[in-house]
Amino acid sequence: MEACLIIDIGTGNARVAVAAMDGKILGMAREDVRYEKDERYPDAIYFDPDVLWAQILRLATGALKGATGVRVVAVTATSQREGIVLLGREGESLIGLPNIDHRGREWEEEMGDKKRIYTLTGRYPGSLFSALKLVGIRQRRQELWSRFATFLSISDWVQYKLSGIVGYEHSQASETLLYDVAGKRWSQELCDGFEIDRAVLPALVSSGEVLGKVLPSLADVLPALSGAVVVAGGADTQLAIESTQPAADDMVIVSGTTTPIVRLMDKYLTDERERTWTSRHTAGDVFILEANAGVTGLNYQRLKEIFYPNEGYDVIERELATVSAPLCVAGLGSLIADERSPVIRGGFLFNVPVSHELSRANFVWATLWDIACSIRENYRTLCEVAGHEADYVWACGGGMQSPVLRQLIASLINKKVKLRSNFRQSSVVGGVYICNRALNGAAPSPAAIDIIQPEDQQHFASMYESWKKARAAFSQMM
Question: Please, where are the H alpha helices in 387-425?
Answer without folding.
Answer: 403-413
